C-alpha cells in the first residue's frame, strides 16, 4: 500500500465568488438546515467571505465600521440567539448530500480592522474564581501581523447578557493593561460548520459533528478542514474569527475580530468521516466533543483508530500502540458547553513503503 500523505483533493474548477457580510447574508446565533442560501457554488469554487465579529460593540470606535454598524442596526438584540456568534452564509454546494464530506481550504485571512476584543466571560472556565467579574481587553495587531499588544481594558458595566451590545467609550473607564507583554498572533476562524441534521435553529455555542464553534487556533491560513455533510447542499457558514487564542480558550473568548477569508470549497464523495478533521502541512487533527472531557477523549480516540485503519491500513492493535506512543491529545477548548479535544497525528511518522 502506498502511504497517503494528504487528504486534499486535486481541483481544476476555479470559479470565484464574493460573499460580503450584509444584513441579508448573515445569521446571528444559530445554524439552520432550512435557511435560504446566501450563495450557491460548485465544488472547487473559490469564495471570498467577509466575517464580522459579534464583539464589535465592545469598542465600536476601533472594532466597527459603517458596514459592521449596518448589520448591528439591522438585527434586533432579541433576534441574536440562541447562541452569540454572527455568521456569514450559508453557502450551498451543488450536489452535496448527507454522508459526503466538505473540504474547506483556508487560503488566506486578512483583518478587516486591526483590533480585537477578549472578554473574561460569565461562561469562562474560572468565572466563579473571579467572582463572575466581566472584563474586556482590547488588543491591536501589529502591521507585520506577528504580535498583539493590549490597547486598554475595562470592567464591563452590568451583566454581559446582550449579544453585540454597543458600549460607547464614555460609558466605561478604560485603563492600561498587559504592559510590556505581547501576544502571538494566530489568525483563525473560530466557527466554521455545515448545517446540522436537526430541524430548527441550532445554537452556535456547542461544537459537534457538523463542526461549528470548534475554536482550534490552527484553523488558519494554509489549513484545511473536513466536515461530514448532514443535509442537502451542506450549507456552510463561518464567523467568530480571532486574532489570537490559546488552547483551552480559558476566559471564554479569544481575541474576537472581523476577518476576510479566502476559501476553496470541495465536495468529497470519496471520503467518509463522522467528526471534523483538520489537515495542516505537518499533521492531521481529529476533533471530538462532549460535555465531559473524558468522554470527548474516548470519542476522539475511537474515531482516530478508524482514521488510521482507513488511511493506512493499520490494525486496531497497531493503531492503539501508535496513539499511545506518538499522537498528542490536546484540549481545544473547555468553555463551549461541549468541551473539545483534538488528537494530532504527525505526518512525518508515516514512511513510504519500501
From TrEMBL:
Give the molecular function GO annotations: hydrolase activity, acting on carbon-nitrogen (but not peptide) bonds, in linear amides
Q: Which residues cross the membrane?
A: none
Highest taxon in the source lineage: Bacteria
Q: What is this protein called?
A: Formamidase
Q: What organism does the UniProt record list as the source?
A: Planococcus salinus
Amino acid at each position: 500500500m502506498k502511504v497517503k500523505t494528504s487528504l486534499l483533493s486535486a481541483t481544476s474548477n476555479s470559479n470565484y465568488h464574493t460573499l460580503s457580510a450584509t444584513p441579508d447574508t448573515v445569521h446571528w446565533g444559530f445554524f439552520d438546515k432550512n435557511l435560504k442560501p446566501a450563495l450557491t457554488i460548485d465544488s472547487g469554487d473559490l469564495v471570498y467571505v467577509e466575517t464580522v465579529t459579534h464583539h464589535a460593540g465592545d469598542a465600536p470606535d476601533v472594532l466597527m465600521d459603517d458596514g459592521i454598524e449596518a448589520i448591528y442596526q439591522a438585527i434586533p438584540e432579541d433576534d441574536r440567539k440562541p447562541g452569540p456568534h454572527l455568521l456569514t452564509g450559508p453557502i450551498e454546494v451543488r450536489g452535496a448530500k448527507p454522508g459526503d464530506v466538505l473540504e474547506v481550504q483556508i487560503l488566506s485571512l486578512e483583518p478587516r480592522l486591526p483590533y480585537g476584543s477578549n472578554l473574561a466571560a460569565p461562561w469562562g472556565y474560572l468565572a466563579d474564581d473571579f467572582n463572575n467579574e466581566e472584563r474586556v481587553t482590547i488588543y491591536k495587531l501589529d502591521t507585520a501581523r506577528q504580535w498583539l499588544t493590549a490597547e486598554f481594558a475595562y470592567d464591563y458595566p452590568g451583566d454581559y447578557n446582550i449579544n453585540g451590545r454597543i458600549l460607547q467609550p464614555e460609558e466605561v473607564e478604560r485603563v492600561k493593561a498587559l504592559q510590556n507583554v505581547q501576544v502571538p498572533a494566530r489568525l483563525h476562524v473560530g466557527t466554521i460548520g455545515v448545517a446540522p441534521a436537526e430541524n430548527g435553529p441550532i445554537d452556535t455555542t456547542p461544537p459537534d459533528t457538523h463542526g461549528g464553534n470548534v475554536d482550534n487556533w490552527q484553523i488558519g491560513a494554509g489549513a484545511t478542514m473536513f466536515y461530514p455533510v448532514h443535509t442537502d447542499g451542506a450549507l456552510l457558514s463561518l464567523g467568530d474569527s480571532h486574532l489570537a487564542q490559546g488552547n483551552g480558550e480559558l476566559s471564554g473568548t479569544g481575541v474576537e475580530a472581523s476577518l476576510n477569508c479566502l476559501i476553496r470549497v470541495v465536495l468529497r464523495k470519496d471520503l467518509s468521516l463522522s467528526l471534523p478533521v483538520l489537515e495542516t502541512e505537518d499533521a492531521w487533527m481529529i476533533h471530538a466533543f462532549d460535555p465531559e472531557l473524558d468522554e470527548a477523549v474516548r470519542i476522539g480516540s475511537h474515531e482516530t483508530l478508524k482514521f488510521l485503519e482507513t488511511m493506512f491500513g493499520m490494525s486496531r492493535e497497531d493503531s492503539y500502540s501508535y496513539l499511545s506512543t506518538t499522537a498528542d491529545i490536546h484540549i481545544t477548548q473547555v468553555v463551549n458547553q461541549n468541551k473539545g479535544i483534538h488528537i494530532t497525528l504527525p505526518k512525518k511518522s508515516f514512511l513510504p513503503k519500501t
